[in-house]
Amino acid sequence: MTRQELIQQIKQKRSFLCVGLDTDPKKMPQCVFDLHDPIFEFNKAIIDATAPYCVAYKPNLAFYEAYGLKGMESFVKTVQYLKEKHPHHLIIADAKRGDIGNTSEMYARTFFKEYDIDALTVAPYMGEDSVTPFLQYEGKWVILLALTSNKGSHDFQLTEDAQGERLFEKVLKKSQEWGNTENMMYVVGATQGRMFEDIRRMAPDHFLLVPGVGAQGGSLQEVCKYGMTKDCGLLVNSSRGIIYACNDDHFAEVAGNKARELQQEMAAELDRVGI
Q: What is the pTM (predicted TM-score) of this model?
């Protein structure tokens, strides 16, 4: 999916919602366990219920890798289902890969060629040669960790050098020498609030993938106030607040309702800025 195609989907659906598929059997309703592949069947039901209200899905690889080959089979089936039944949604693999160059080359091949994912989260800590292998695939996106929503983000990301430049600012500045607004996004946690102003000063036009709205306490309105651009420039992710909103036979219906509620809030934010 190109940047322009993504923007078109946002305008058409009046939504910039990304649904996180952090699929945990411990939280899934009992009704899916009678099926052959509970993880996939849960995902399938969630996808069908929420697809009208979102523009992206983000399976978190940890929740599939934890169950070995069977879990990865569920992941592959989920990706294939999205491509066949809901092809206009961006598929983001939340895997946070990043290693020395030849290892990153293999990770890039895994996700962009073998799995044919649209976008991949990547850790920038090891620098240019750990990131650029992911940027060699036409039409694919690297989503670089910049300023995350977890408590420990303050341990490193906000540390300053002698000139007062914070580490996340170095990441934003340096990485723009490697990629551009057509193939690179940044992860910025919703709980960072007005820090979005600092992000936008350094990356005014890049799309931002924003986790942390809902269950983690981030405010959609605050994210939009400080982070939205003329092209929207945001993909706001919600995982637990949607997919685990109900734990009985009506789980998919309730998830769809939760996604619709967020979509309506997003539509109001898009209207507010004239998109």
A: 0.97
Residues 6+ apart with CB under 8 A from 24: 63
Q: For residue 185, count CB atoms less than 10 angstroms from its CB and return exposed for 0-12, middle for 13-18, buried for 19 or more.
A: buried
- Please choose, from the candidates 260, 135, 237, 229, the residue with its C-alpha nearest in 3D space to the C-alpha of residue 191: 237
Which of 108, 98, 158, 160 has the alpha carbon at shortest distance from 137? 108
pLDDT for the residue numbered 214? 65
Residue 125 has pLDDT above 80, yes or no: yes
8 A C-beta contact, residue 242 and residue 50: yes
In 3D, which of 64, 20, 17, 65 has the Cα closest to residue 40? Answer: 64
Cα(63)–Cα(74) distance, integer angstroms: 10
What's the whole-number mean pLDDT along residues 186-191? 91
Res. 217 pLDDT band, cuts 50 70 90 = low
Token duo for residue 219: 């405010």
29 by Cβ neighbours in 10 Å (0-12 / 13-18 / 19+) ranks as middle
| Residue 173, helix vs strand vs coil | helix
Strands 208-210 and 184-188: parallel
Backbone angles phi and psi of 61, in degrees to 5: -60, -30
Average pLDDT of 216-243? 92
3-state secondary structure of 123: coil
CA separation, residue 159 to residues 163, 170, 211 (Å): 11, 11, 22
User: What are phi and psi for residue 191, nearest 5 degrees?
Assistant: -75, 0
Reported as type and span, the H/E element at residue 20 is: strand 17-21
C-alpha of 111 from chain center = 15
- Contact residues for 194 (Cβ-Cβ < 8 A; gap 6+): 222, 226
Which residues are annotated as catalytic?
A: 96
